[in-house]
# Entry
Amino acid sequence: MEKILTCIVCPLGCELCIDLEGKEIIEIKGNTCNRGKIYAENECISPKRTVTSTVKCTDGSLLSVKTDQPIPKEKVFDCMKIINQTTATLPVNIGDVIVKDVFGSNIVATQNKN
Amino acid sequence: MKDLVIIGGGPAGMSAALSAFDCGIKDILILERDSHLGGVLQQCIHNGFGLQKFGEELTGPEYAFRYEEKIIKSGIEVKLNTMVLDITEDKTVTATNPHDGIFQIKAKAVILAMGCRERPRGALNIAGSRPAGIFTAGTAQKLVNTKGLLPGKSVVILGSGDIGLIMAKRLTLEGAKVKGVFELMPYSGGLARNIQQCLNDFNIPLRLSHTVVEVHGKERVEGITVAEVDEKRVPIESTKEFIPCDTLLLSVGLIPENELSKSANVKISPVTNGALVDQNRQTSVSGIFACGNVLHVHDLVDFVSDEAEIAGKSAAKYINNDLSDSTEINIFTDGKIRYTVPQRITDLTDVKVYFRVNNIYKNVNIKVTDGINTLLTKKRPKVSPGEMESVTLKNDHLKNVKELHFSLEVV
Ligand SMILES: Cc1cc2nc3c(=O)[nH]c(=O)nc-3n(C[C@H](O)[C@H](O)[C@H](O)COP(=O)(O)OP(=O)(O)OC[C@H]3O[C@@H](n4cnc5c(N)ncnc54)[C@H](O)[C@@H]3O)c2cc1C
# Structure
């Protein structure tokens, strides 16, 4: 079976063509880089996504955050629930861990805030 | 008197300032009307920035901070909450802020880096009432990402530009139901990766060759009528369909913000709505440069930073009386290629020329001639209006050339 995917790793958005036999990958075509190949493999076995969102801060403002690793795609909404229940204590620097161990990733700040 | 005044502290303004600084210009002032540096990146909390520039995937605020950090370290002067009101041809800048009131600065060189704004609904001509619940996609982005407000629960998006796609995903993650993205053209103006990760991932339908023909609701949007359009983009009566929703987002394009440029007598291109520039990003007014979204709309911030570095370096050369103009070559396009930046070349050096096409084409040859001889061809498997292309002309190509013609041939 042939599966066509759009690579989401970078803005090039390469069209990937994956030759599949059941769950086994026979060949990947169309990728311009190795990251595209890894994306195609993951996408066929266990798709992953980076989540970006905001959390409330102790002063009522918002802080932008992301998962520092892509998480399983089917956990994205569960991850959003955790993010929406979180309040960050200020001050915060870029890269500070706001929530630890969320589906194999940490939720980290992408902004500085005093 | 200042050596260099930069209008706008977004990624373009910051990059331009840093490259001028690295070329030895220390007397620089950045004027920014917002309360922080970073421009539109502050509300772009999604990832996808910096892959070309830093080789890693950053969010908007992270990308902005890489530059802000350097600006702070360099000691370059920044005035925040400062709105520039006027620029004259002799490079006198008038601005105002709560601290200094209205003030004027004369500059040896000025860099325009004001970014762009969203095309509003007025420009669109949709029939029906004017209820609450209609937002541009960028306004919705600001509300959700910086104020924590959800513009509505049940949303339709008109236009498939990247901001609309990104907001479809963002609103879905925050619990709204996005009923569909409707695009007038037969292709999406957004990046392929955004169609995948913002729409397909959440089963949000993208309907091409469709438009909103009517908005329903008195006080608040209650629904919209959409219809398919024919080749002339005229809605087809028999395809009208009512979709209940409480919010309509418009993602129908960006326009460079050039009121100030016009007051300085800078010549504006009717195609890009930005200044006409040479390879140094110098406008028609000597000593005034432009870069970033105020010059032409970019989809990737990495290209904005590259362009701003050129403008910064060139401004530094101009201030040091070191900018040469040994030739005058105008660039013409065939329509399939909508525009190029720069539009003219004034020195015999290697020049990377950026351009956009007017439609999706497969298997094309990009051809550059001097009117008679072909100087260069470049093959591309696919080009689309949403993605900026480029060719690099070598110094050798430009010798004895008076004009350049860019054309696209489908092979
Ligand atoms: C919603 C959205 C999503 C995007 N997503 C991506 C993405 O995923 N990946 C990517 O690479 N790129 C993305 N981009 C593109 C990228 O963010 C822009 O190309 C880039 O920010 C443009 O930089 P700029 O400095 O030219 O403009 P801006 O960031 O708009 O900065 C212009 C600055 O000038 C200031 N200004 C304007 N007028 C005045 C005045 N009169 N006086 C003083 N200051 C003034 C403004 O306040 C602003 O801070 C996105 C853009 C938008 C709008």
